[in-house]
Amino acid sequence: MKNDKYGFTGKKENGLKQIIALKNLGNVSAGTLGGFIGKEENLSDTGNAWVYDNARVSGNARVYGNARVSDNARVYDNAWVSDNARVSGNARVSDNAWVSDNARVSDNARVSDNAWVSDNARVSNNALVSGNALVSGKAWVSGIKRSDGHTFCFVSCSDGSHRVIAGCRYFLMSEAKIHWTETRGGTALGEETLAILDALEALSKVKPGGCV
């Protein structure tokens, strides 16, 4: 069946083609210019799924349902974004990752490998979700990058605890502060780390959630 949902403007960037809506799609009016995709398989020709702004979808990635990819976000490799999910900001979803349901991935967040972000989960700031991770329910993951490039991610858990993920470390907040005081205490990097932990802890008071 002929694709009557969107066409191509003729504009290309890095091998990707800009899309244009051929009919009204939810909040997208016919004639609206969209982002860039590599091939028609990247964006479903049914539903209201759309690629906005300067967002790019490439490789074997798929965006379908009512999903939205916007701003400067990138979805590539074999990643899928489905249902009512949103990927925005400078977020990246890659490898075999899947973002579904009402999940949100934003800012500079990265979701990769075989990770799955679903339900009403939120992944934002500089958070990294990778491996075989599953972030679901009302979970939210937030991250802050230290000056040396090391990222500290924060997960609010359903038992009321809050854990810090940094590299291979997976600490309760209290454990994290003890660890970096003992290993980095009295150094500029140590002071920066404790300030990051304080900032993440403050977030927990205004953004409650749960993780699996």
Order of helices and strands: EEEEEEEEEEEEEEEEEEEEEEHH
* Estimated share of beta-strand residues: 25-35%
Total E-strand runs: 22
Instruction: Name the poorly predicted regions.
Output: none
Tally of separate helices: 2
| Helix vs. strand class | alpha/beta
Instruction: Give the total of domains.
Output: 2
Task: Name its key features.
single chain; 212 residues; alpha/beta; eight-stranded mixed sheet; 22 strands
Characterize the structure shown:
This protein is an alpha/beta fold and 212 residues long. The protein folds into two domains: 6-114; 143-204, no CATH class. It has helices at residues 173-184, 188-204; strands spanning 6-13, 16-21, 33-37, 50-51, 56-57, 62-63, 68-69, 74-75, 80-81, 86-87, 92-93, 98-99, 104-105, 110-111, 116-117, 122-125, 128-129, 134-135, 140-145, 151-156, 162-166, 169-172. Strands 4-7-10-13-16-19-20-21-22 form a nine-stranded mixed sheet. Strand 19 and strand 20 form a beta hairpin. The longest helix has 17 residues, at 188-204. The N and C termini lie far apart (41 Å).
